[in-house]
Amino acid sequence: MRLSKIHLPGRTGSFILIMGAALVYGLLNAYSNRLLLPSAPFIALRPQVALPFFLGFLCGPWVGFLTGFLGNVIGDVLCDYGVWHFWNWHIANGLYGLIPGLGSRLGLQEIRTLRRFVIMESVVVATNIIAVACAVLADLLWIRIMQLPQSLTSWILPALITNTVLTFVLVPLLLLAARMIVVTVETRITLALSWLMVSIVIITATAVTGAVWNDLDSPAASVRAFYSAGIVTVLVVSAGFLIAVFLAYRITDPITNLQAAARRIEAGEYHPSELALLAARSDEFGQLSGIMQRMAEKIEGRENRLRHQVTELKIEIDRAKQDRDVREIVESDYFKDLRQKAREFRTHSEDERSTTREDDTDEQDESRRL
Q1: Residue 266's CB: how many other CB atoms inside 10 A?
Q2: Of 118, 254, 266, 304, which has fewest CB within 10 angstroms of its CB?
Q3: One-letter-per-residue 3-state SS of 5-70
Q4: Tens digits of residue pLDDT in 277-296
Q5: CA 155 to chain centre
Q6: How far apart are CA 132 and CA 155, in angstroms?
Q7: pLDDT digits (tens, 9 = 90+) for 262-274
Q8: What are the structural domain ranges in the chain?
Q9: Of the candidates 59, 62, 173, the residue with the CA atom closest to the CA atom of residue 121
Q10: Residue 62: exposure state from Cβ atoms within 10 A (0-12, 13-18, ≥19)
Q11: What does the angle CA 88 – CA 91 – CA 95 come to, to the nearest 5 degrees?
Q12: Does residue 149 have a cis peptide bond before it, meaning omega lies within 30 degrees of 0?
């Protein structure tokens, strides 16, 4: 059974889900704060950041928002940061659930095509950018803890890079587990190519950064190299995703067209337009399209012949039925009795006419004698 949109049992069910998810998110935030990123005093590696994204897609914008917002509050309290000290990041974590929840109204309740998968991942990336931008803007305008450009490597890049890469990989996994992503040829190929590209880029960037880490002349240079590699990772992952989408499209588009053509043939349309361009290709898809075209022509010919035979057979059946009905009527007792009465009536009529003629003859003879 596919889990698309959860229909919660009233306000009580919504409250229980939100508080449970927020508590889990807060506990994981408190635990992951031990994994602080280089030169980032408050930004940690947080795989659980995918949770509000997931609940936003699955349950709607407000469940996702409150999960991220309250969960980040709980995590900060457990880490002795206070309730409202970093209120801008509470809002940013809330946006991690709110924007995907709004994005789910773009037809993402069920992701079975390449187009919807691209929209989903685009929403994930855009959400990270918008949320971090809002947190940074709020700090620069009101809180004034960040100092540019120093905060670029201590707040902005750590939060943006890690959360973008983690959610890009983990959110599709969670949606796949919830069966919001339906396993089709398009989604399977896109997932495989995307994860392969991300894995290669991350492994390569980590290996290169680790290889040159000890050769740099200062910790600041090491940190710059680390986040430069992170920026390159995000850019390459984005480019790789576009390449993966292009490759997936090249593979799945002919399959989609063949599927549409097969449905048209099933509906009785034996000249599907989807096969016109595919049949001109020289690869396996072109060969398969040519086979389907010839198959459609043969099926159409057989159906026409069968329709003609059925028409002729129907005419013969109608004639045979008429003969049988006439025979049944003729051989019935009622018809025999009616025919006998008609014969008797005809005989009686002939006798009367004969008697009438004889009387007329006698009258004529009598008249002549007189």
Answers
A1: 8
A2: 266
A3: CCCCCHHHHHHHHHHHHHHHHHHHHHHHCCCECCCCCCCECCHHHHHHHHHHHHHCHHHHHHHHHH
A4: 778 778 888 888 888 888 88
A5: 37
A6: 9
A7: 888 888 877 776 6
A8: 10-266, 274-330
A9: 173
A10: middle
A11: 140
A12: yes
